[in-house]
Each structure stands twice: as structure tokens, then as C-alpha cells.
Specification:
With 324 residues, this protein is mainly beta. It is built from no helices and 21 strands. The protein has a 5-stranded antiparallel beta sheet with strand order 13-12-11-8-14, with no helix packed on it. Strands 20-19-18-15-21 form a 5-stranded antiparallel beta sheet, with no helix packed on it. Strands 4-3-6-7 form a 4-stranded antiparallel beta sheet, with no helix packed on it. The two termini are 23 Å apart.
Amino acid sequence: MWHPKTLLKVAVALVLVAAVIPAAYPASAATAAIGGYYAGCGNFSVDVAVSGTNNDGNNLDKFRYLVTDGNGKKLYQEDATRQINTTQGSVVVNLSYDADGVADGGPAKNPIQFSVIDLDGNNVPIATIQSVSYQAPCLPVSGGANRSGVFRPPKNVVGTIVTTTPLFQTPGGGQLNLTANVGANHQIVYRTPDSAWIAIFVGGNDIVWIPASTIRANLGTVAVVPSRIDLSSLFGTGGPSSGPTNAPGGVTARVLVRALRMRAGPSTSAAVVTVIPLNTYLPILGRNARRTYLKVNYNGTVGWVSVFYVRVTGARIIDLPVVQ
């Protein structure tokens, strides 16, 4: 969200706006923000942040992610919870509609809608908090959609191709008549659990896969391809490959000042990289040893911000990993 996003792009930074409430539901105080969104014929991508506000039991706020086509047919559904008074973001790229364990089949009519729905303590829907829609390219245009264009994943790791390789639709399958050539640099999105295959972003709305042996990169900071939306991230937490440990997914910092300076290093003497606006939510990658600066990602730019001008949710500062 989480916009980093992962929160995750500025578009995904939580904006506390009035909820979009269908007439069939009573009002709700829960809030959410949806940044980038894309819906295809068999998968979707989304960058979303949810804030827990209503206590549905055990200080948790229950909600649901729901994807439907233009006929109201359910394509994907996932229930989740959020600690109250906590905002956490999620980002998924090319998540299958069948990842929820139900083979509903593909969409039959545009537009494809993604919604965040507030639930009560008994998991009964009480409000649509936010929703967006997209015209799937596999279907005729129908009705209106409020999102369009390419879903660009938040940047994390860029790798260099060391061996020319074909591109694949899936790990080891669906070879395309396209190649990644030696010397080319590509943004890495995911890896398989065994780190044998790497998903890269080459433009457009679909990621493609290549053997990990054909690209040089630090795979320890690349996330394993997710099977659900909530608390997913493009920032890995280590694994079979060596690399620095990142903060847990969903740990964010909210900017408390009008114009926060992001610096190239954890010091007031370090160069200013950019300026971040008030109330932006930033995914945290770690901290310095003195616990005075946080390493964050803002719209794909990584840098350092002072802990004195942000509010951290999802973890204590002392528990964050020390990073360089």
C-alpha cells in the first residue's frame, strides 16, 4: 500500500475520505484507499490500504476484498482483519481469480470491480468502503470504469540479464516468442519459493517469468509470489537466497509534517532525495542502529526519514531490522 507503496505508491497511501456506501448497507466508519488496479481475463493486480476502526471483537476490524464482473459474478473473495487504529497496505501483481480456492471461471462482462467491504462481527457485509473498476481487455467495453492504463509494480529490486533467455507466462511453462537479452536491466517482481524462477516487469499489465540463473540480483529482498492479497508485499523477508532482512509486510510510517525530507542516508548531512507530503503512508524497510532514522520506499524511491516526523504502525521501532 501500500505506493511505496508497499505504502506502496502515493496513489495507495491511505486517504481518509468519505466511504462509498451502497443504499443496501448502513453507514460505516471503516476506511480504505485503493491505488493502482488492473483486471484481466484470469488475474488482477491491486495496491490497497485498509485502516482498522471498528472493533468487531478482540480489537480487530473485519473486512472483505471482493472482485466481481459486470454481471455481479464473484471472481475472487478474501476475508481479513485489521487491528483497530492500525493502517496496513497490500500489493499483489497478477493474482489469479482462482487464488481464493474457488474456480469461478473468468469474467463474462465488463467492468471488473474490486471492492473493500466492511464486515460485522459475524462476517456479514455492512458497507462497501471503497471500490474501483477496470475494463478487462478480453471483453467488450461495457459501462464505465474509473481505472485504466498500466499497473506498474512498486520498484524494489532491479536485476541484470547475464544469459539471453526466453520469456515464460508461468514458471517453466508457456514460452513466449520473446527474449530478455544479455545486459538488459529489468525490475524483479516475485520469485518462486525455491528461488528457481523470477518474475520480471517488462511493461504492460502482465509479468513474465525467467530462470533465476539468467539474471543477476539479490533475491533475498524479493518476495515469494503470494497466494492472497492481505499484507502481501513486493519486499521479501529473506529465504533461500542471502540478503538483508526487511521489516515485516504491512509496517508503515505516516508522515506527520507538511513536507518531510527524504535523505540519501540516515543523517541531516545526507543529500535530500525528495520531499514527501503530509499524511503519506510509507512502507518501512528497516532502521539505523541508533533508531533515529527509518529506511522507507516512496513511489519507488528508497531513502531515509527521521523517526521524529512520522508515526509507525505495525511494529515497534526497536523491533525493526537494522539496515544499511
